[in-house]
Amino acid sequence: SSTTRVSLERLRGSLRVHVTPRDAAIDAEPVSMLAQEAGADTRRIVPNTDPQSLPIGMYRITATRDGYAAKELPTVAIRSDEITTINISLVGKATIRYPTGPPGVVVTIDGVPQTLPSTVTEGLHKVTLERAGYERVELEATVTVGQQLDLFPDWARATGNLTVTSTPLGADVY
C-alpha cells in the first residue's frame, strides 16, 4: 500500500492601488464566498506601492482620509496570478457654517437648499442667503480641504417706494 500526499495551495492574485491623496487609508473587505472561504479578512492595503497578494475573489475597496469624502468600489475582482490595478481620487470636503444665523434664514448652496452647517466639496460655491424683510445676500466662496467657512453676511433692510394717491387731491394721508 502506498500513501500519496497532496498539498493544496489557495489561489492568489494581487491588488495595486494608486490613490490621491497619497496618504489615504485603503481597506479591502472580502465580499464573495470564495474570498471569505479562503480565510480572507478585511485588510489594510498600502497604496502607491508594489502589488499586494490577496486570495482570489471579490472585494469591497474603501478609501478614506480626514477632510475628504470616502469612496467605495463595491466589487473589485482579484483573479489568480493577475495584478488588479485601481486608481482612486478622493474629493476634498469643507464645511460652510452660519454660527450667528437668525431664525428664518433660507440658505442655498449652488442652487440647492441647505441646512447649515453643510459639508461641500472643495472648490468654488455660490451661496445665497434670504431673510424676510432684508435684501438677498449672494456670495461666492472658494473652500479648501478641511476648511470651515463661517458666514457673517451684512444684512441690508429691504427698501422700496410707496406712492399714495388721494381723493380729494391734497388730502392729508397718515
Describe the structure.
The protein contains 1 helix and 14 strands. It is rod-shaped. By secondary structure, the chain is mainly β. The mean pLDDT is 91. A 4-stranded antiparallel beta sheet has the order 3-2-5-6. Strands 10-9-12-13 form a 4-stranded antiparallel beta sheet, with no helix packed on it. The protein has a 3-stranded mixed beta sheet with strand order 4-1-7, with no helix packed on it. The chain starts with 11 loop residues before the first strand and ends in a 24-residue tail after the last strand.
Secondary structure topology:
Layout: E1 12-20, E2 25-30, H1 33-37, E3 43-45, E4 52-55, E5 57-64, E6 71-78, E7 83-89, E8 93-97, E9 106-109, E10 112-114, E11 118-121, E12 123-130, E13 137-143, E14 148-150
Parallel strand pairs: 1-7, 8-14
Antiparallel strand pairs: 1-4, 2-3, 2-5, 5-6, 8-11, 9-10, 9-12, 12-13
